[in-house]
Amino acid sequence: MLGTPFESEFQLQSGTRLHLRPMDSKDYATAYEIFCHEYYRPNRLLDRSKVRTVVDLGANVGFASLYFATVFPSAHIWSFEPHPVYFSQLAHQVRRNEISKRVTLLNAAAGTRNMYCRISDEGRNSTIGGSSTENSFGACMLDLFELAGPLAPLDYLKMDIEGGEHALLADPRFESLGIAEIAMEWHDTPEVKNAKLACVERLSGLGYQIEIREDCGGYGTLVASRPS
């Protein structure tokens, strides 16, 4: 996998260039979800022109970060991606679109403390907690609150971190980030059996209005917005 080439390039009407791997990858479906279906479209009440700080947790190969660079023209984007292959493609996409000055790339996972961790190598379903005896890789985890605290209040947070969202939401420091809008996937885990309910209750308790955009049973997506 480490030597996988970028097979195709597409240029959208916005001018954004997308680099995709061979047809057997999920890049095509992911790009369609983000740019056509607008998987992470902001709430209509959010003033896109005033968004200054976007944090992309689980940036994968970079499509969401490119989307945010387009819909939030004045924003700086912090993109976290621990997988070495995906991070390489993410970095390539950012350079190719000449937005390096607007994107801070972090080859790391986001968590509640700084530490070294292992991540199961399951492509887009990789999770923190892999062991050295299975298909996994080592990665740095950065304390999101230590890093993002000086940036607060955050305008927009995207989370797609395969169950890692629960530790971040449960941390008492989460509220201090002052996030205006959150777009996230929830995932059932052995520790959190009903992730949808847990995430909705936590965010509602912090004063967010919740819009469920997709419910696939054990996982789904929602957008949480603070009333203006």
What does this protein structure show overall?
The chain has 228 residues and is an alpha/beta fold. The protein has one domain (8-225): Vaccinia Virus protein VP39 (Rossmann fold), CATH 3.40.50. The protein is built from six helices and twelve strands. It has helices spanning 27-35, 63-71, 84-96, 144-148, 165-170, 195-205; strands at residues 8-11, 17-20, 53-57, 76-80, 103-106, 109-111, 115-120, 136-143, 156-159, 181-187, 209-215, 219-225. α2 links the parallel β3 and β4. The radius of gyration is 17 Å and the shape is globular. The mean pLDDT is 89.
Quickly list its features.
single chain; 228 residues; alpha/beta; Rossmann fold; 7-stranded mixed beta sheet; 6 helices
SSE pattern, N- to C-terminal: EEHEHEHEEEEHEHEHEE
Task: Give me the CATH fold name.
Answer: Rossmann fold
Give the number of DSSP strands. 12
End-to-end Cα distance, whole Å, is 45 Å
Radius of gyration: 17 Å
Largest sheet: 7 strands, mixed
Number of DSSP helical runs: 6
Q: Considering DSSP H and I runs of 4 or more, what fraction of the residues is helical?
A: 10-25%
Which CATH-level-2 architecture?
A: 3-Layer(aba) Sandwich
Form type: globular
